[in-house]
Amino acid sequence: MAVTSFEVDQHTAEAISELRGLFGVKTNAAVIRRALALAQVISREAAADHTITVSGRAEPVRIVLNG
């Protein structure tokens, strides 16, 4: 398996830490793998205008992928 390393700012490090708990994984690499898998699904399912709408507990959120 290829090894990649990079530096992240404090905000990104905190987001990765939060996602470790939400995703139920133990490593930063596992968070990044899951985040990339989600990004692939989202990009494949985007509308013709490169947007996707996420609905959940609050009001739906429209996300522009190429903006």
UniProtKB/TrEMBL annotation:
Protein name: Uncharacterized protein
Species name: Acidiphilium rubrum
